[in-house]
């Protein structure tokens, strides 16, 4: 392995993520992996990486890195002000860093998560066949001030003969108000008819959260009668409703089993939209049949 970057300033939260840790949910270990798979996979495509290479997932911005070696990188995801040695660099296009260069990822103006990816991916120890960070399980690497991020120690990982990127029409856009598709959950019919309608007709505001869950505020969703619910398997996108009636969308690091009623599940194709929400953004749910 070759040292690529040193973290000089730490923003809100950063971690290393590959596609995820498959095959261990039965043991209580979540999938983890990227919150926004669309932006993550676009980075691998742009750099012609293997689809399961490891990226650095950064929330909100505020990070600064120093290049310890030459390398080729791309920034994808949330719209952010990014600079190399104080000169703006375009996201969604590959760029070069030379030894000693300073890369800063400043304020994020649309969306919430940025992916920093080198040619060949970051290299870190695999645990249970994955490099994805899962802090609650003491698995993987959190990006902290002073951390050194490593890459492949081969010439092919250092540079590309030409710039690659995505044209603007093919890049995701990040909106303050989104609509996502959902399936009925196993407890949908336990909610009052009014609550079912409110879920599908109302608007919910994102009030905060992390890689475990996003909290929403809007119409209060109520069961027809208070009753104990047997714990059920959950997944990335499960919408649970605790006793206060305000929904929680479970995210990539969420528990694998939960005891709150599950009113719906977000379609996997729309999970990246949920992941990129910012505080005070709103979401509406559209029911998919079948």
UniProtKB/TrEMBL annotation:
<protein>
    <recommendedName>
        <fullName>Carboxyltransferase domain-containing protein</fullName>
    </recommendedName>
</protein>
<keyword id="KW-0378">Hydrolase</keyword>
<dbReference type="GO" id="GO:0016787">
    <property type="term" value="F:hydrolase activity"/>
</dbReference>
<dbReference type="GO" id="GO:0005524">
    <property type="term" value="F:ATP binding"/>
</dbReference>
<feature type="domain" description="Carboxyltransferase">
    <location>
        <begin position="26"/>
        <end position="289"/>
    </location>
</feature>
<dbReference type="InterPro" id="IPR003778">
    <property type="entry name" value="CT_A_B"/>
</dbReference>
<keyword id="KW-0547">Nucleotide-binding</keyword>
<dbReference type="InterPro" id="IPR029000">
    <property type="entry name" value="Cyclophilin-like_dom_sf"/>
</dbReference>
<dbReference type="InterPro" id="IPR052708">
    <property type="entry name" value="PxpC"/>
</dbReference>
<dbReference type="Pfam" id="PF02626">
    <property type="entry name" value="CT_A_B"/>
</dbReference>
<keyword id="KW-0067">ATP-binding</keyword>
